[in-house]
Design brief:
- There is one protein chain.
- Helices cover about 0% and strands about 50% of the residues.
- It has about 130 residues and is mainly beta.
């Protein structure tokens, strides 16, 4: 099992930036991918971005492409989400998650295929 702790959320004005961090501990050596998801009140949890541990390949939701960047520091077992040009519709609780085994890229966007989740960090973007 992997333990995940997110941080970096907060209140920011539209157009601003935030950087989220997610520190992993435990059985991190077996992690295939790490992803970021978000969930707004009354909505389903949705994919934001994912990063493949060994290849460094990254995947993004269309809604954040060009504004968000996922990166990772394997030595620190940390994944980051740099968010720029934030919009009020980006307001949500942001979660990081790990996927233990290789799966086709389609599954990187599907929450049920992730194994461990953090507790989330709130991001609020004011207009």
């Amino acid at each position: 099992q992997v333990q995940l702790v997110e941080s970096g959320g907060g209140l920011v004005q539209a157009g601003g930036s935030l950087r989220l961090s997610c520190v992993a501990s435990g059985r991190t050596f077996s992690t295939y991918a790490m992803g970021w998801f978000r969930q707004a009140p009354g909505k389903e949890r949705e994919f934001v971005a994912a990063s493949i541990r060994n290849s460094g390949s990254s995947y993004y939701a269309d809604s954040v492409k060009g504004r968000f960047t996922i990166s990772r520091d394997n030595a620190k077992n940390t994944v980051y989400l740099q968010m720029s040009s934030l919009k009020p519709e980006d307001t949500a609780v942001y979660y990081c998650a790990t996927m233990d085994y290789y799966r086709d890229s389609y599954y990187l966007r599907q929450p049920p295929f992730y194994n461990d989740w953090g507790q989330g960090t709130q991001v609020t973007v004011s207009s």
